Model the fold of this input.
Amino acid sequence: MKFFLDTADLNEIEEAASWGALAGVTTNPSLYARVGGKLSDFHNHIKRICDIVDGPVSAESVAMSRDEIVRDGRELAAIAPNVVVKVPTMVEGLAATHTLAAEGIPVNMTLCFTVPQAILAARAGARYISPFVGRFDDISEDGLGQLENVVAAINNYDFTPDTVNGEQVEIIAASIRSANHVTQAALMGADIATVPFGVLKKMVAHPLTDRGLDAFMKDWEKVQNA
Ligand SMILES: O=C[C@H](O)COP(=O)(O)O
Done:
Protein backbone atom coordinates (compact mmCIF):
# COMPACT_ATOMS: atom_id res chain seq x y z
CA MET A 1 0.00 0.00 0.00
CA LYS A 2 1.16 3.51 -0.82
CA PHE A 3 0.22 6.55 1.27
CA PHE A 4 -1.03 9.86 -0.10
CA LEU A 5 -1.74 12.88 2.09
CA ASP A 6 -5.29 14.24 1.79
CA THR A 7 -4.62 17.93 2.32
CA ALA A 8 -3.78 21.25 0.68
CA ASP A 9 -1.68 22.39 3.67
CA LEU A 10 1.90 22.97 2.52
CA ASN A 11 3.36 22.61 6.03
CA GLU A 12 1.67 19.24 6.51
CA ILE A 13 2.89 18.08 3.10
CA GLU A 14 6.47 19.19 3.80
CA GLU A 15 6.45 17.46 7.19
CA ALA A 16 4.95 14.20 5.86
CA ALA A 17 7.37 14.20 2.91
CA SER A 18 10.28 14.37 5.38
CA TRP A 19 9.08 11.08 6.95
CA GLY A 20 9.93 9.27 3.73
CA ALA A 21 6.66 7.43 3.12
CA LEU A 22 4.71 10.03 1.17
CA ALA A 23 3.86 8.82 -2.35
CA GLY A 24 1.43 11.55 -3.38
CA VAL A 25 -1.14 14.16 -2.39
CA THR A 26 -4.87 14.53 -3.00
CA THR A 27 -6.68 17.84 -2.71
CA ASN A 28 -10.28 18.90 -3.18
CA PRO A 29 -12.11 22.27 -3.16
CA SER A 30 -12.97 21.95 0.55
CA LEU A 31 -9.35 21.20 1.52
CA TYR A 32 -8.17 24.22 -0.50
CA ALA A 33 -10.80 26.44 1.14
CA ARG A 34 -9.64 25.16 4.56
CA VAL A 35 -6.15 26.63 4.04
CA GLY A 36 -7.66 29.98 3.01
CA GLY A 37 -7.06 29.34 -0.69
CA LYS A 38 -8.03 31.99 -3.24
CA LEU A 39 -9.15 31.22 -6.80
CA SER A 40 -6.42 33.45 -8.27
CA ASP A 41 -3.71 31.47 -6.45
CA PHE A 42 -5.09 27.96 -7.08
CA HIS A 43 -2.73 26.95 -9.87
CA ASN A 44 0.29 28.39 -8.03
CA HIS A 45 -0.71 26.48 -4.92
CA ILE A 46 -0.93 23.19 -6.84
CA LYS A 47 2.49 23.97 -8.35
CA ARG A 48 3.96 24.46 -4.85
CA ILE A 49 2.59 21.06 -3.79
CA CYS A 50 4.01 19.45 -6.94
CA ASP A 51 7.42 20.93 -6.14
CA ILE A 52 7.40 19.29 -2.69
CA VAL A 53 5.98 15.89 -3.60
CA ASP A 54 7.73 13.35 -5.77
CA GLY A 55 4.50 11.64 -6.83
CA PRO A 56 1.01 12.24 -8.17
CA VAL A 57 -0.84 15.35 -6.96
CA SER A 58 -4.60 15.34 -7.52
CA ALA A 59 -6.15 18.74 -8.34
CA GLU A 60 -9.92 18.79 -8.72
CA SER A 61 -11.97 20.28 -11.52
CA VAL A 62 -15.04 22.14 -10.27
CA ALA A 63 -16.68 22.31 -13.68
CA MET A 64 -19.99 20.57 -14.32
CA SER A 65 -20.03 20.00 -18.09
CA ARG A 66 -17.75 17.63 -20.00
CA ASP A 67 -16.28 20.40 -22.16
CA GLU A 68 -15.50 22.57 -19.15
CA ILE A 69 -14.01 19.65 -17.21
CA VAL A 70 -11.80 18.79 -20.19
CA ARG A 71 -10.69 22.43 -20.48
CA ASP A 72 -10.04 22.58 -16.71
CA GLY A 73 -8.20 19.24 -16.88
CA ARG A 74 -5.88 20.38 -19.66
CA GLU A 75 -5.04 23.56 -17.73
CA LEU A 76 -4.43 21.67 -14.49
CA ALA A 77 -2.27 19.05 -16.24
CA ALA A 78 -0.12 21.85 -17.68
CA ILE A 79 0.85 23.02 -14.16
CA ALA A 80 3.33 20.17 -13.58
CA PRO A 81 4.04 16.69 -14.95
CA ASN A 82 2.83 15.03 -11.74
CA VAL A 83 -0.65 16.60 -11.70
CA VAL A 84 -3.56 14.17 -11.76
CA VAL A 85 -6.94 15.69 -12.64
CA LYS A 86 -9.62 14.84 -10.09
CA VAL A 87 -13.03 14.44 -11.70
CA PRO A 88 -16.34 13.60 -9.97
CA THR A 89 -18.00 10.29 -10.80
CA MET A 90 -21.00 11.49 -12.84
CA VAL A 91 -22.03 11.26 -16.50
CA GLU A 92 -20.21 14.47 -17.51
CA GLY A 93 -17.20 13.36 -15.48
CA LEU A 94 -17.04 9.99 -17.22
CA ALA A 95 -17.20 11.62 -20.66
CA ALA A 96 -14.47 14.10 -19.70
CA THR A 97 -12.32 11.31 -18.25
CA HIS A 98 -12.64 9.39 -21.51
CA THR A 99 -11.31 12.42 -23.44
CA LEU A 100 -8.56 13.34 -20.95
CA ALA A 101 -7.31 9.74 -20.70
CA ALA A 102 -7.12 9.50 -24.49
CA GLU A 103 -4.88 12.60 -24.40
CA GLY A 104 -2.61 10.93 -21.86
CA ILE A 105 -3.81 13.07 -18.93
CA PRO A 106 -4.20 10.94 -15.78
CA VAL A 107 -7.56 11.19 -14.01
CA ASN A 108 -8.54 10.37 -10.44
CA MET A 109 -12.30 9.71 -10.36
CA THR A 110 -13.57 10.97 -7.03
CA LEU A 111 -16.82 10.84 -5.06
CA CYS A 112 -17.06 7.16 -5.99
CA PHE A 113 -19.22 5.07 -3.67
CA THR A 114 -20.31 1.91 -5.47
CA VAL A 115 -18.99 -0.99 -7.55
CA PRO A 116 -20.89 0.07 -10.72
CA GLN A 117 -19.47 3.61 -10.41
CA ALA A 118 -15.94 2.22 -9.99
CA ILE A 119 -16.21 -0.11 -13.00
CA LEU A 120 -17.58 2.71 -15.16
CA ALA A 121 -14.67 4.93 -14.04
CA ALA A 122 -12.16 2.22 -14.97
CA ARG A 123 -13.83 1.67 -18.34
CA ALA A 124 -13.74 5.41 -19.02
CA GLY A 125 -9.97 5.33 -18.55
CA ALA A 126 -9.43 6.59 -15.00
CA ARG A 127 -5.87 6.09 -13.73
CA TYR A 128 -7.11 6.21 -10.12
CA ILE A 129 -10.50 5.56 -8.55
CA SER A 130 -11.33 6.97 -5.12
CA PRO A 131 -14.03 5.10 -3.19
CA PHE A 132 -15.03 7.13 -0.11
CA VAL A 133 -15.11 5.22 3.18
CA GLY A 134 -15.90 7.75 5.92
CA ARG A 135 -18.75 9.50 4.13
CA PHE A 136 -20.47 6.14 3.71
CA ASP A 137 -20.07 5.51 7.44
CA ASP A 138 -21.52 9.01 8.03
CA ILE A 139 -24.86 7.88 6.60
CA SER A 140 -24.79 4.67 8.68
CA GLU A 141 -23.66 2.51 5.76
CA ASP A 142 -20.65 0.17 5.70
CA GLY A 143 -17.87 2.24 4.09
CA LEU A 144 -15.18 -0.43 4.48
CA GLY A 145 -17.54 -3.09 3.10
CA GLN A 146 -18.16 -0.96 0.00
CA LEU A 147 -14.41 -0.39 -0.43
CA GLU A 148 -13.81 -4.14 -0.16
CA ASN A 149 -16.43 -4.75 -2.88
CA VAL A 150 -14.83 -2.16 -5.16
CA VAL A 151 -11.34 -3.65 -4.71
CA ALA A 152 -12.62 -7.18 -5.39
CA ALA A 153 -14.67 -6.13 -8.43
CA ILE A 154 -11.87 -4.11 -10.05
CA ASN A 155 -9.41 -6.97 -9.45
CA ASN A 156 -11.83 -9.36 -11.19
CA TYR A 157 -11.02 -7.72 -14.53
CA ASP A 158 -7.90 -6.93 -16.48
CA PHE A 159 -8.44 -3.27 -17.26
CA THR A 160 -6.43 -2.00 -20.20
CA PRO A 161 -3.23 -0.32 -19.01
CA ASP A 162 -3.59 3.44 -19.27
CA THR A 163 -1.87 5.45 -21.95
CA VAL A 164 0.26 7.42 -19.49
CA ASN A 165 2.69 4.92 -18.01
CA GLY A 166 1.31 1.50 -18.82
CA GLU A 167 0.08 0.94 -15.26
CA GLN A 168 -3.26 -0.54 -14.31
CA VAL A 169 -5.94 1.50 -12.61
CA GLU A 170 -5.25 1.92 -8.87
CA ILE A 171 -7.78 2.14 -6.04
CA ILE A 172 -7.32 5.01 -3.60
CA ALA A 173 -9.11 4.42 -0.30
CA ALA A 174 -10.41 7.95 0.35
CA SER A 175 -12.39 9.71 3.07
CA ILE A 176 -10.24 7.88 5.60
CA ARG A 177 -10.96 8.82 9.20
CA SER A 178 -8.85 6.44 11.32
CA ALA A 179 -5.78 4.21 11.44
CA ASN A 180 -8.17 1.25 11.54
CA HIS A 181 -9.62 2.34 8.18
CA VAL A 182 -6.03 2.15 6.85
CA THR A 183 -5.48 -1.30 8.38
CA GLN A 184 -8.65 -2.69 6.84
CA ALA A 185 -7.99 -1.02 3.46
CA ALA A 186 -4.50 -2.57 3.38
CA LEU A 187 -5.82 -6.02 4.30
CA MET A 188 -8.37 -5.93 1.48
CA GLY A 189 -5.68 -4.86 -1.00
CA ALA A 190 -6.48 -1.19 -1.74
CA ASP A 191 -3.46 0.14 -3.66
CA ILE A 192 -3.32 3.50 -1.92
CA ALA A 193 -4.78 5.17 1.16
CA THR A 194 -5.10 8.94 1.10
CA VAL A 195 -5.13 10.14 4.69
CA PRO A 196 -5.49 13.45 6.54
CA PHE A 197 -2.32 14.50 8.41
CA GLY A 198 -4.00 13.80 11.76
CA VAL A 199 -4.63 10.18 10.75
CA LEU A 200 -1.06 9.84 9.44
CA LYS A 201 0.24 10.90 12.88
CA LYS A 202 -2.05 8.37 14.59
CA MET A 203 -0.75 5.66 12.24
CA VAL A 204 2.74 6.13 13.66
CA ALA A 205 1.71 6.04 17.29
CA HIS A 206 0.92 3.19 19.66
CA PRO A 207 0.64 3.36 23.48
CA LEU A 208 2.90 0.30 23.83
CA THR A 209 5.56 2.06 21.75
CA ASP A 210 5.34 5.06 24.11
CA ARG A 211 5.42 2.85 27.21
CA GLY A 212 8.36 0.82 25.88
CA LEU A 213 10.29 3.96 24.98
CA ASP A 214 9.65 5.43 28.42
CA ALA A 215 11.00 2.24 30.09
CA PHE A 216 14.08 2.22 27.83
CA MET A 217 14.85 5.86 28.68
CA LYS A 218 14.47 5.28 32.43
CA ASP A 219 16.71 2.17 32.32
CA TRP A 220 19.29 4.05 30.24
CA GLU A 221 19.36 6.74 32.92
CA LYS A 222 20.21 3.98 35.46
CA VAL A 223 23.04 2.79 33.20
CA GLN A 224 24.44 6.33 33.02
CA ASN A 225 24.33 6.76 36.80
CA ALA A 226 25.73 3.28 37.58
O1 LIG B 1 -11.84 14.23 -1.44
C1 LIG B 1 -11.57 13.18 -0.86
C2 LIG B 1 -11.46 13.07 0.58
O2 LIG B 1 -10.74 11.89 0.89
C3 LIG B 1 -12.76 13.18 1.30
O3 LIG B 1 -12.53 13.04 2.67
P1 LIG B 1 -13.63 13.53 3.75
O4 LIG B 1 -14.84 12.70 3.59
O5 LIG B 1 -12.97 13.32 5.07
O6 LIG B 1 -13.90 14.98 3.43
Summary: The beta strands are 2-6, 22-26, 57-60, 83-88, 107-112, 128-131, 170-173, 192-195. The pocket of glyceraldehyde-3-phosphate is lined by residues 6, 28, 110, 132, 134-135, 174-175, 194 (CB under 6 Å). The longest strand covers residues 83-88. Residues 207-225 form the longest helix (19 residues).
